[in-house]
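[Help] Beginner question about ligand-bound structures

Sorry if this is basic. My supervisor gave me a protein sequence and a SMILES string for zinc ion and asked me to "get the holo structure". I don't really know what that means in practice or what format the answer should be in. Inputs are pasted below exactly as I got them.
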Amino acid sequence: MVKIYIDPGHGGNDPGAVSNGLSEKNLTLQIGHFLSDYLNKNYQDVSVQMSRTKDETVSLRERTNKANNWGADLYLSIHVNAGGGSGFESYIFNGQFANQSRTKQLRSQIHDTIVSEMNWNDRGKKEANFHVLRETRMSAVLTESGFIDHRQEARLMRNNDWLKKVAVSHAKGIARAFNLKETSQSLLDDPLYRVVVGSFLKEKNAREKVDLLKKKGYESYIFPFAQQNKRYYRVIAGAFRQRENANRRVNDLKKDGFESFIVEV
Ligand SMILES: [Zn+2]
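Answer (accepted):
No worries, everyone starts somewhere. Holo just means with the ligand present. The predicted complex, written as C-alpha cells, is below.
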C-alpha cells in the first residue's frame, strides 16, 4: 500500500495568494480533492490522506505532524504561484536529508509528467527551506501550478475542468514515481457515489450544515464547484464505491433529519 499525503496549501484565515478575484486556498483545495478522488478511483493499493478537506486553518506543524504520524510515503504540497510569471515549478528541501536521492528521483518523475501533461512552461526543479519540505520524514515535494496573477492562467483557474486536469497530471506523476497499477476496467466502470446533503451559494451556510452534521456524528466536507457561472458549496457526507453503502448513508441521514441525494463521479 502506497500512502500519499496531499496538502492543499493555505486555508482558513490564510488565503495564500489573492488576485483576479481568486484565492489560492480555494484552488489548492479543489485540486487536492480532484487528486484524491482520481488516485482512489484509478489506481490500486494506494491510500490517500489530506491535510485539510475544507476551508479551515491548519498550521504547518499540524500538517507535517499528521503526515509523519501516518507514515506517508509521499508528502505532496499543492500551491499556486504569484509574483509575475507563468507556468510550473516544483520544490524539494535544499539541505542534506536521509532520503535525498530517492526524493530527487521522485520529484523529477512527478515534475516531468506534470509539465508534459499540461504542456507547461517549465520554470524548473527548485530547492527551498520550506517547513513542509524540512519537517517531513518522508519524501516531500511542493508544486506551484500556474500564476494566479497571470491573466490567462487565472482565467483557466476559474474552470473546474482545468483544475481537474492539473490534478490528473499530478496523479499520473505520482503513479509513475511509485509504479502504481491502474484499477482494472471493471472496477473503473463502478463510479464513486457521493452523498450530497445540500448545495449552497454562501459558504457560511454550507459550513453551518457541516457543523450540524458533525453534531450528529457525520464527518462531512465542503466541495466548491461552478455551474452556469455560479459558485456553489456542496456539502458531501461520504463517498462510496458501492451504491448500497451510499444508499445506507442516505437512509441514516434521513433518520437524523437530513435530506440527501447521491451523485456519481
Ligand atoms: Zn502557496
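A couple of things worth pointing out: The chain has nine helices and twelve strands. The longest strand covers residues 230-240. Feel free to follow up in the thread.
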